[in-house]
Every structure is written in structure tokens, then in C-alpha cells.
Amino acid sequence: MDAAIVNSCVESIVTILETYSVGDIKAIKPYLKKGAAIRGDIAGIMKLGGEFNGSVAVTFTAECILGIVSNMFGEEMTEMNDEIKDAVGEMVNMMAGQVNTKMTEMQKKLKASFDTVYLGKDHPVSHIEGRPVIAMPYKSTAGRFGLEVCFEK
Predict the structure, then answer these.
(1) Cβ(12)–Cβ(98) under 8 Å?
(2) How many domains does the chain have?
(3) What is the secondary structure of 45-68 as a DSSP string?
């Protein structure tokens, strides 16, 4: 797993979340994920293609994403709905754009793109079958979120 690519994903989502004032972001110890269920209530998926394939899931607890989207919209959001799904999709799209810029700077032939958003506690996410998934949890004043990263090589 290429640390530079993983770091570009981490830096991108942290930059986006800092834009929406999630407060202090602290990394929790990464681990090798077991099973397909997300650790949270909603996940946005970004696919990677080119030199190799990969996937990145950005997961949020309801508390966290409702706080973030409330900051984005300037009004209190209290329920998980299509507006929340759309906001997560937009964050993943912004993340893909930032990752693509970094890949170009690193002269990597890799393209990131938005794939989908899953809503539902412990919803299963399919990464690349047979490949390890690294889960990187975080906590912020808005709540908990995480990244799941899986590459074919």
C-alpha cells in the first residue's frame, strides 16, 4: 500500500472537514478491518483507477455528519436524509478532486472519482475482494469519522 496515496486521502478529508469547523481532529490507532460493515451510520465511497485499482470509504457517525452538515448549511440538521447523503457525496467528490491534484503532482497515473453513498448503521461496503482494508478512525469535536482504504497492490 503506497503511503503517499493514503496520506493524500487523509490530508484531503481533514482539509475538507476543517473547512466546516469540526474542531480538533485526532487520529485513533489504525487497524486491519475485519468484515464488510462500516463503522458508522453513513459512508461515501471513492474509487481509484489507473496504475492500480482501489477504494476509499469515508465513514461518519450520525452525530458527526449532522454536526458537519449543520455547519455547511448554516442550519441545524437533525435527521439522516437525502440532504445528508448529498452532502457526503459532495465531500467525497471534493476529496477526489484534491487526491487527483496530488496524484498529478506526484506524477502518478491514478484517477480518483466519486462512486456512491451508503446510508445505514453498519451498512456493508465492498472493497476489493481478497485485499486487506486498513481502517483509520478519527475523533473530532463534531464526533467520530473514519477512512477505510483498500488497494489491489
Answers:
(1) yes
(2) 1
(3) EEEEEESS-EEEEEEE-HHHHHHH
pLDDT > 80? residue 147: yes
For 99-113, write each residue's pLDDT tens digit. 999 988 988 888 999
Alpha-carbon gap, residue 8 to 15, rounded angstroms: 10
Give the pLDDT of residue 106.
86
CATH of the domain at 41: 3.40.1550.10
pLDDT at residue number 108: 85
pTM of the model: 0.91
Residue 31: what residue type? Answer: Y
Q: CB-hemisphere CA count at 13 Å for 66?
A: 11
Cross-strand pairs, 143: 140
What one-character DSSP code corresponds to residue 27?
A: E
